[in-house]
């Protein structure tokens, strides 16, 4: 198994001229399967080197700008850990302190924050049509800045969760699935259930579900998307998942019954998200700046959720999965019934039984982000890795 | 004197297999005297290397998570400086940004923030029975995470002030006392007065006083604890101090008269803390979530303080100490009468006369913290130090 | 041209014993012309080394304390980028989190934050007579601390914008002018118009205008300062500019007509600042702590501004400059009419035409700050640079 291969052999398998060099990482759908595999391989190498106490600070200097437009602990940590692992310093951009606005000013700000920046990590996931567009604006600004000769380097923009995709999550999930089922190839035909689940909290983004379906349907998996009526994902993306599954020799289906979905599953991923119609309304209100309407809308969303309290991942449902032992997945934090809330996404007994697996799943993220940084910033990462391992940092 | 010894000789005196390796540092009482001495020695080595401009960035990568649940400038700085000195990157965990709650979620959060973390530095000192328990919860979580194979390394938890102890402060105080009186041995029999003092501000934790008494009674000092009736420390700890003094051949006494306490003292440490009964009530109110009652309680605490305005460290009182020149100590910031408040802990003339000494006392803290980091993280710190000094960082 | 010279030759031109070593950088007026030139040269070297991917992390350890008493994105970024470039870790001092007060406490805090600190970068620009005085207090505190033997090193204080000067801005502007006009010598006799411009926002500091006039009048430029009646700079400084221009063989004039000022200009720098009388009143109110009066004063300032909406940098006015193609400058962010505000400092067409130039101007700042750090901290920067380039970091 690859886990046991020597690090030298693993490094030598990295592409000499890697096609991710100089690019952004906004959606996995924009990357080829070999590129996806290169990220997994690079993450594995970095994890191995770290566990052996090796110096992986490849950058002689440079900033990683952490631009969170929403609260975050886990991803903020993973981004900081990845930056540190490679020798970058993190600059946290706190919008409350900086007053960054939209339009012209974003272009300007992005350029001004790029003179010595290697990567931007951006989270912007609260409103449909906003986050991805914001990231593209930043990417365009630094592209123009570089082309005009203003920026010596063009930083890479990494999506740390948008309204459309959450690639650092879905790739961590993929690394976990690969490790659990033995190999990427072994995932073919495996049934993965991405299911909505009840939560008493409101407004969770759609991007985890979209990211997981978007990536796994390209890998020949049998992806089942389950949600109550009215909780669909972005329609254009759902259509894309059908197409991708067909092309990859996999399967994609949408069902509206959690229990049905779980039957015979190899892995289940029950997780709450906001109702699509409510998300759309919220975006319209945001654009009008109607804060009062947004508060009312939140109540409406919560009331909608309350009709679907039976969408909870229970022991009984887990027993209906393949052999009664499907891999339970979650991006964390989960709403655990009786623990973090009265009624939530998952029964305590299920959550506790899979606690170790959940941490293993989460533990991939810092390395996945570091891999993205390394591959988007170094044309020949194998060369730079070897040079650094020899103790040369210049 | 040790200050003049070559760094090479100092390094060679560090334990080859140090027993602090892999442990937390929550209370000095859990550490043996040789371990306490190792921290002092390591701090001295790091200070010397720094003053000579040597590279002490021993870590090839890694995070130091700074988890402050209360405001802090000095300790936050010292923690950041210590991390930088050893080559760790700091991640500041701002609870307002992260919404960390108690119970299950703390365990989860701690694990999620540990994948590439070497140390947690935690301050949580506002409520009796809370801070130390919180740190133990974090320590248990990472222990379990490591044992289950989820965390490649088990980070060390360092107490940056809890409701029970403040080891980075008391060890800095000890380094200062050792330097002032010539050696650790010279402290035997010296009279140290840890005294309550009046302050117009409310709610200062008990941990500085507890930390100082807890450490110095183990070293054969003649520790006098002075406070007005109702301002006692945690009773269980006071009992422990009596026991320790007896075992170490020192002395511990409690008096309720500041003037009496100062007579013939070798060193005085006058500092305000909240009345114990008020602290206890506050904790009960916090648990009930009764914010209104807490505001009323604050007034009660301040009114109690107001009855003891004569507990001020004055020139007259300093004259009654041994030879009129006891070492005045404070953890800073002090409430200086007529400067930072109308009436406070200490007269301006006393404070000014000891300003230099106070800064020297404070200056130990970054090196004490760095020493704790080095000793809890490296099994053979002498080897790693020498390797790094030779310019090898891998 | 110097841009093409090899880095080795550039480095060898740095002063062997540089007179900026150990000093602060609070006002350009306190520095000699050779010292100003050394900063420009050092910035150019660091930029070149960075563009070649060389290791410029000269510090083996150390903190750069970022002390912003006002909001900032660009300068905060530049300071962090400069620190990273040289191998320092940034500690952000958030006054909301730290409760730093004036007087004694500033002295104390500054000392307590200096034990392992190389540089303080301070922004404090909101009130006349406050910011510069604050920086001097910090500088005095660390000077005393070092002289008393409390601080092993005396950190350098860098002004990141005060009420009097903004040296990191004016030196970036100078680097830009030098690059644009070919050399420092070529600036002699060139007409630079520093003009007030209309803005719908209030309370911008005077320091950019003061910084630019203060520096450029010493270099033989023909500096024209233009503002509506009542918008003068600190009178003592204006008198100084006249004197400096005379001494340098340049020219300094004050006019009250923007159109007149622009005629035949080689470069124009139209930028808003608050009316002087309003600034003075605001400072008095601040000292009294009269927040209500400050709010009323803001309205008064805005009403004053509104009478001068014709002070806008238009295409028509740009046509009146030398050959119709003066270099348009701005420290950013600019109030662009119809973009970031209805009516502002500059027409959109002008701003867009110079967008690239504006970014080039801004791009100097991280390197100027890094140059200040390098020159104030290393006695022989050429030696340390060469040692680091050889891969020795100890």
TrEMBL record, chains A, B, C:
GO terms for biological process: citrulline biosynthetic process; L-arginine biosynthetic process via ornithine. It comes from the Bacteria. It comes from Candidatus Chisholmbacteria bacterium RIFCSPHIGHO2_01_FULL_52_32. The lineage of its organism: Bacteria, Candidatus Chisholmiibacteriota. One of its GO terms (molecular function) is amino acid binding. InterPro entries: Asp/Orn_carbamoyltranf_P-bd (IPR006132), Asp/Orn_carbamoylTrfase (IPR006130), Asp/Orn_carbamoylTrfase_sf (IPR036901), Asp_carbamoyltransf_Asp/Orn-bd (IPR006131), Carbamoyltransferase_YgeW (IPR017702). Residues 24-177 form the Aspartate/ornithine carbamoyltransferase carbamoyl-P binding domain. Keywords: Transferase. This is Knotted carbamoyltransferase YgeW. Gene3D superfamilies: Aspartate/ornithine carbamoyltransferase (3.40.50.1370). Residues 208-375 form the Aspartate/ornithine carbamoyltransferase Asp/Orn-binding domain. The keyword Transferase applies. Belongs to the aspartate/ornithine carbamoyltransferase superfamily.
